[in-house]
């Protein structure tokens, strides 16, 4: 069973997924959302990959170099052993700029004996459309696709070129390297340069982690999740991706396959809030600049999602020539959900603006722009909060009055009032307070179902929904309020199955969900902890951590029965919820670093 046993490497420009056997099965260059150069993840036959083939005597293990995004795959038969250290270069240059080229370096290190293997180098450019042909040149190996769209990929190595291209047996007698690049390099690289890139990248990640808050409990899983979230951020604009992949299905053989290589305002805002808790304010400030640049007009509505370079049109297409992950079609690029109306995004964005001003009050640029955005958000909420929408789960059929959307409209006004207080702007407070109370009263009257004894998915509905658990997180209701406790209990009865949560059980556009949305289980554990059932919450949390892959990474979904990972990977949403839950379990207690611990 394929359990998405992949590691992610990246440099905040793009990323690659490396299988537990050391094969690069997914990589898009030069950016996250560019066409793939390796896509075996989405088609075993056509997609292309870059791996190592060893005989059955070898045991293969994998781990990250501690506190870095450098992935180590170890091949050993007891006597003969070698390691592949995979990374994408990233390090500080000067004037607040970072070296982050569209390249992957594979440092092949001899550990012991005389290990032998074959290299399988099979790039398929442009999502494997057309024909990719690989040629041996004097200084490099080049792969070219010039049928539908022209594209090239360059491989530099000190291995024998013929052995690499033809996949003949190689006996390792020293350290070697494999370095593929989207661009032709001006100077042919060598082992010394590879080692220099390796050390600089290693130091970058160690320094980044040294600036990351540490906590008394679960610090190892918090650290790995923090690095994963950083890898899903895009330096050029400040966008944060939902995931590094497209079309990994929520359920094998079904059609819930979406492209997640975009920036959802909801997901990204939650990431920024968590990164603030971890002490990384730069990523927060870059993301706010991303948002500010998207709102040039005072009356322009926010989309629910954007391209990572601020694209507003994300037209959806299908790649019919690819068979899909385990034959789960269709393979999609682009995402039609960008057209949807979701009223909750305003509350989430206001919450981030408030958190940023609260935590970094004297160090936030664009304060006047943020106040303009704040006023604009309240204006939009006041005009549209009574309207139905598609909701957090992006239902593609009818609009409804979703409870979560209403709560987040309330949140938008609540946080706007707090921002007004921080900025000493008092003229609108009385009017905004009246709007806030009107929305609160409406929710308490219409979202509560007396028969179910819970706040339900939508007004007038009996269906339960995990998203209403966030009513407490956003400050709408106290954790000890009887109606909230009753809601948590009802959701456990109806939506909890074998230790995992359904998002909801009512049928949507594609039938009833058959896998668990990972973040929902984290939300429930958080709620359980807050209503006072701390020991049970802790046991559930530790059990859930056991469902990650071999490197501690989570996708979007988990199969209820088999517990295999499903959906796009790695999923920012899942890891931010993991961090938030782990911090709560630590009661927010940071570990004090001794001077000897500072790297």
Automatic annotation (TrEMBL):
A Pfam family assignment: TREH_N
SUPFAM superfamilies on file: Six-hairpin glycosidases
Location of the Trehalase-like N-terminal domain: 8-132
Single Gene Ontology MF annotation: hydrolase activity
Domain of life according to the entry: Bacteria
Start and end residues of each GH15-like domain: 218-582
UniProt keyword annotations, A-Z: Hydrolase
Protein's name in the database: Glycoside hydrolase family 15 protein
């Amino acid at each position: 069973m394929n359990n998405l046993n992949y590691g992610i490497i990246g440099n905040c420009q793009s990323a690659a997924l490396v299988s537990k056997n050391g094969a690069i099965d997914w990589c898009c260059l030069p950016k996250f959302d560019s066409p793939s150069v390796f896509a075996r993840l989405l088609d075993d036959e056509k997609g292309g990959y870059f791996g190592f083939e060893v005989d059955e005597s070898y045991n293969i293990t994998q781990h990250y170099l501690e506190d870095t995004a450098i992935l180590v795959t170890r091949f050993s038969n007891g006597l003969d052993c070698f390691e592949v250290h995979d990374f994408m270069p990233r390090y500080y240059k000067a004037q607040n700029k970072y070296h982050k080229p569209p390249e992957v370096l594979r440092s092949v290190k001899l550990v012991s004996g005389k290990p032998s293997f074959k290299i399988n180098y099979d790039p398929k450019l442009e999502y494997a459309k057309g024909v990719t042909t690989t040629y041996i040149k004097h200084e490099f190996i080049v792969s070219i696709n010039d049928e539908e769209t022209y594209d090239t990929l360059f491989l530099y190595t000190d291995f024998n070129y013929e052995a690499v291209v033809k996949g003949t047996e190689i006996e390792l007698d020293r350290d070697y390297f494999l370095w593929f690049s989207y661009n032709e390099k001006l100077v042919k690289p060598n082992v010394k340069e590879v080692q220099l890139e390796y050390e600089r990248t290693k130091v970058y990640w160690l320094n980044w982690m040294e600036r990351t808050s540490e906590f008394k409990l679960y610090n190892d899983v918090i650290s790995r999740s923090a690095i994963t979230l950083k890898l899903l951020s895009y330096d050029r604009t400040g966008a944060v991706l939902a995931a590094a992949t497209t079309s990994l299905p929520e359920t094998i053989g079904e059609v819930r396959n979406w492209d997640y290589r975009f920036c959802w305002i909801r997901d990204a805002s939650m990431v920024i809030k968590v990164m603030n808790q971890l002490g990384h304010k730069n990523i927060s400030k870059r993301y706010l600049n991303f948002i500010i640049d998207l709102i040039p007009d005072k009356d322009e509505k926010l989309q629910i999602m954007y391209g990572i370079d601020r694209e507003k049109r994300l037209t959806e297409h299908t790649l019919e020539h690819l068979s899909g992950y385990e034959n789960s079609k269709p393979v999609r690029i682009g995402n039609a959900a960008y057209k949807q109306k979701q009223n909750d995004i305003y509350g989430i964005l206001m919450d981030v603006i408030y958190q940023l001003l609260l935590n970094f009050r004297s160090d936030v640029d664009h304060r006047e722009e943020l106040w303009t955005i704040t006023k604009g958000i309240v204006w939009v909420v006041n005009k549209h909060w009574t309207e139905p929408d598609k909701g957090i789960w992006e239902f593609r059929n009818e609009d409804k009055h979703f409870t979560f959307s209403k709560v987040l409209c309330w949140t938008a006004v609540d946080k706007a009032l707090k921002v007004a207080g921080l900025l000493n702007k008092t003229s609108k407070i009385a009017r905004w307070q009246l709007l806030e109370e009107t929305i609160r009263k409406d929710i308490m009257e219409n979202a509560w179902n007396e028969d179910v004894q819970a706040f339900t998915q939508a007004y007038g509905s009996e269906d339960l929904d995990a998203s209403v658990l966030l009513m407490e997180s956003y400050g709408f209701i106290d954790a000890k309020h009887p109606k909230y406790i009753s809601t948590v209990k009802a959701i456990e009865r109806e939506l909890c199955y074998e230790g995992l949560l359904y998002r909801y059980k009512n049928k949507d556009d594609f039938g009833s969900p058959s896998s668990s949305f990972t973040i929902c289980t984290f939300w429930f554990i958080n709620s359980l902890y807050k209503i006072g059932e701390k020991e049970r919450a802790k046991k559930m949390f530790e059990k859930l951590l056991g469902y990650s892959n071999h490197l501690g990474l989570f996708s979007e979904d988990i199969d209820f029965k088999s517990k295999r990972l499903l959906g796009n990977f790695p999923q920012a949403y899942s890891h931010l919820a993991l961090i938030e839950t782990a911090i709560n379990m630590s009661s927010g207690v940071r570990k004090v670093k001794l001077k000897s611990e500072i790297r």
